[in-house]
Design a protein that fits this description.
Shape: globular
Protein name: Tetratricopeptide repeat protein
Order of helices and strands: EHEHEHHHHHEHEHHHHHHH
Low-confidence stretches: none
Number of strands: 5
Helix content: 55-70%
Strand order of the largest sheet: 3-2-4-1-5
Length: about 325
């Protein structure tokens, strides 16, 4: 048995139509995995922290390396280098390498590309350029130490592990029995498509065809990863954006009534926080306040929902539309 490294894109999963949280669920099903080891971002609002439990895929924690010291050490180095002209030039070189890598991974990719040689080679080049810019030793030791610690935790493990994309090449070197999955014959399916639709609806852009988005949302009934309640809440956000409070409230109240414990855990907080805003905008301050408090009483409300509820309790939400 080997250890399969499945690259994680973090919040970028919300932006990639064919490598999103739903796609990762489908990949894991394709690989026959009912559980994953977690060695990626510790953010509780990570997209996969919703999608995997909703899909009945277990998450085994305890494999994430401690990053706090590494971030602190790297921050101290940056502060030191920024005091000197040559140091600032080195920091610009490192920032340029990061921008170049980011430009590659923010372009929509197919799953086979994410685990392909071009992207993994780009990750190697990114870290090599960072080492060259910051110099060997203190400039990059923090990352090498963190990767060594992470590899030690994963040594001897089998199955599938979720790891940050740019850590994959280093872990492949440190863990000889590890590999990336062969996704050449894999194609994203309905779970991926539904997740992409919802992600797109939550992130409106100025040039969006709102009617087309609403029609697409209305056609779907949802699945475990992207349930109908979320599609309704996302549609409500579109109506709220154009000032149709009546339609937004109707959809949000319908979504709220459909919420159950087995839905993605962040959905309740997101739905109720937005419902509180709509009730506020309609002048129903007492009910809005109760709705905000319901958000704060949740055990797993996402940070954005908590911030929205706290702001709503301090000051009533009002809708301002740009003319």
């Amino acid at each position: 048995m080997t250890l399969t490294l499945l690259p994680d894109l973090g919040d970028l999963l919300r932006l990639h139509p064919q490598y999103n949280a739903g796609t990762v669920v489908e990949i894991l099903r394709h690989l026959g995995a009912s559980e994953v080891l977690w060695a990626s971002d510790t953010d509780p609002d990570h997209p996969l922290r919703d999608a995997l439990p909703a899909a009945r895929i277990g998450i085994q924690d305890g494999f994430t390396a401690d990053w706090a010291w590494a971030d602190a050490e790297h921050g101290q180095l940056q502060g030191f280098l920024s005091q000197y002209p040559q140091g600032r030039e080195r920091l610009r070189g490192a920032a340029g390498a990061e921008r170049e890598f980011a430009a590659l991974v923010t372009v929509p990719m197919l799953p086979a590309q994410v685990v392909g040689a071009e992207v993994l080679d780009a990750a190697r080049a990114y870290h090599a350029a960072t080492r060259a810019a910051l110099d060997e030793g203190p400039g990059t030791h923090w990352r090498e130490k963190r990767l060594t610690e992470l590899a030690a935790k994963l040594a001897g493990q089998t199955g599938v592990v979720i790891v940050p994309l740019d850590d994959v090449p280093g872990l492949l070197d440190l863990l000889p029995d590890s590999r990336v999955p062969d996704l050449s014959g894999f194609a994203p399916g309905e779970t991926s498509r539904l997740r992409a639709l919802a992600d797109r609806a939550w992130q409106l852009r100025e040039d969006d065809d709102l009617n087309a988005l609403l029609a697409a949302l209305d056609r779907e009934t949802g699945d475990r990863v992207t349930p109908g309640a979320e599609l309704s809440a996302a549609a409500a956000g579109i109506y709220l954006a154009v000032g149709d409070l009546v339609a937004a409230r109707e959809l949000l109240e319908s979504a709220a009534h459909a919420l159950t414990d087995d839905l993605p855990r962040s959905l309740t907080g997101l739905t109720l926080a937005r419902l509180g805003q709509v009730r506020d905008a309609q002048g129903d301050r007492e009910l809005a306040t109760r709705t905000y408090r319901a958000v704060l009483a949740l055990n797993h409300a996402p940070a954005i929902a908590i911030a929205t509820a706290e702001a709503g309790l301090k000051e009533p939400f009002s809708l301002t539309l740009e003319g």
